[in-house]
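Instructor's aside before we start: the two examples that follow are unrelated to each other. I chose them only because their records fit on one page, so don't look for a connection. First example below.
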Amino acid sequence: MHFVEKDLTQKRIDLDTKLKSNKILRVPGAYNPLTAKLIEEIGYDAVYVSGGVMANDLGFPDIGLTTLQDVSTRSYLISRVTNLPTIVDIDTGFKSCKETIETFEEFGVAAVHLEDQIEQKRCGHLDNKELISKDKMVSKIKECVSAKKDKNFKIIARSDAKSVEGIDSMIDRCKAYVDAGAEIIFPEALKDESEFELVRKSLDCYLLANMTEFGKSKLLNYTQLQDLGYNIVIYPVSTQRLAMKNVEDGLRAIFADGHQNNIIDKMQSRKRLYDLVEYEKYNSLDEKIYNFKTDGHE
């Protein structure tokens, strides 16, 4: 049992309402459910689930090795613990776009994004990517749109064409993707303000900016992106990178020192953890169940 109050439809309505505001949505990636709770507590607008992060967390590189079951199950576990809408990276749509959309919609996700790479995809900020044709991507988007049941469930089209075919070709592709029914466009691996601005001037739709570290894009402040006309900014891998660096440093310290005493201050306290998982709320529920049973209702 969990304590999320909003139903699935309301989360999607919330995302739609936020998109219609003049504020850019700030959306960090969650590599597990506990991180999603922290994202909500701090005050972000939505939760993002990165396909690359899911692959990495399973010990794989981000080259299309994860399955629909891998990503949808983890996305469900993440989305169910937060009132915030959840946006998920579905890579190239897995084996069937129809099945993929039906699965993520049933699992409580608010939006997904589909990319125009071949099935053996690569991280969007690496070189040597290969694309499917514009027409094939249009067909995939149409299949996604026709598969959804909730009108507020968003289909996001990501294009990796800028580094393969050039920015003009990418914009041309994105116009076709909007015509096919994508409500949000995700132009991947734009270089700087001038490229972000060119895309904004060229497209009449919601736009998503990817501020991933160590990539091809200049890391811009969210206010800069808002001024450029972008509607969503994601920080897809930041939480996993922060966590893994600290986990590695801590494990090396324990191995070298033989104890944890020198790194206790680097750890989340038990009290903070219990606050985050709402321990007392669950504890009070146990008491209510116990009282119910002892009153003769078992």
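Example two begins here.
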Amino acid sequence: MLELRQSYHALLCSPAQLALCRQARSLADLLAALRTLWGVAEANDTALLQAIDALNRETLPDDVAGDMAGIWLPRLYRLRSQRLQWCLPDGPATEPFHDEYLIRCWQSTTLNQLITPTTAVQSLAACAGRVPKAQPAGFIFHLSRCGSTLLSGCLSELDDAVVFSESPVLTEVLVDPALSPRDKRALVQCLIDLKASLFPGRRVVVKWNAWDIFQWALLRDIYPAVPVVALLRDPVEILASHHALAGRHMSGDPSLACVAPVFSTSRAASVLDHRIGVLEGLLQAMGALEESPTLARIDYSQLHGEAIRQVASMFGLRCPAEGWLRMEQRMQSNAKLPGTRFEPDRARKAAVFSAVEGQIIRQRLYALHRALVPQPDQRMPLSEALHAL
């Protein structure tokens, strides 16, 4: 293998070298640029590619990881090895989900496809303090299929916001049973700081995964003053959506069993019984969120344009006319499939379950849902509730 370790490390920490390499429009162009930078004009393609592949698989020293702060984006966390993979960002995310944004980053430049550095998760300690501390503008929690993707997508259209919508690296750190709560607090804060530092002038909004609500105490301990929106929906409609396409937390994924007992399938009599139990646990967790002037609960039925505008205000985000126009256009599309027109489907969802199944769902879950969403004659108008924040 070519001895390129020092050159590889220097590349990772040099904005100037990386900018030069990002200009490459083909693998041949990129390899030519690297030969020049690394002084290995005689190396053939095979030898150079083999050397880069080996270096990508090495765990970088802490000092190199620290120097990458503010340049590279933490992309993926592998629980078994407790290693992080990194990529270069490609502008702020507007995709429905953060993993789709990461795919765009990978596809946007040959450099991201060839250079894929790896660090130990513990190396984040070397990054702490290398970038400014970030105070997120707002958090979005939800029960899943409640309009959170619509809300986060609309906020991502604002010029002073950057939205991390269900960031894989954040949730995988939170669900790692080998990490202590203290470790998780430090790592989550550092990861958010690192992510935020890549988008100066923009305020961070984090949309968490549905199961991350069980990490509320830990996250609130880190960020006690961050405004929070908690989204919910008619339980029949939520479960009907998962009947068509089950999310990770409704599929019996064993990796979530350490998050909360509701994710264990051992006691469930059926798939529907398991999913009812999961949603029951999520509703109970949402109900346990302490009442606060920085917390607003919103039902899917309330999630209209004015509500979204007021959430932006609650998060301290500017919503000028051009930003509002982009949000209005976003609201016309399917939240998960931009470019596809949104078609209301409440009636179809209501017909998914038999009369007996529907009755079981209502008996188990409707009281919990109603407790979080007061009846219309008792409910403060959303505009007033959010304005009070």
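Strands lie at 73-78, 83-87, 118-120, 138-142, 161-165, 203-207, 228-232, 295-299, 333-334, 337-341.
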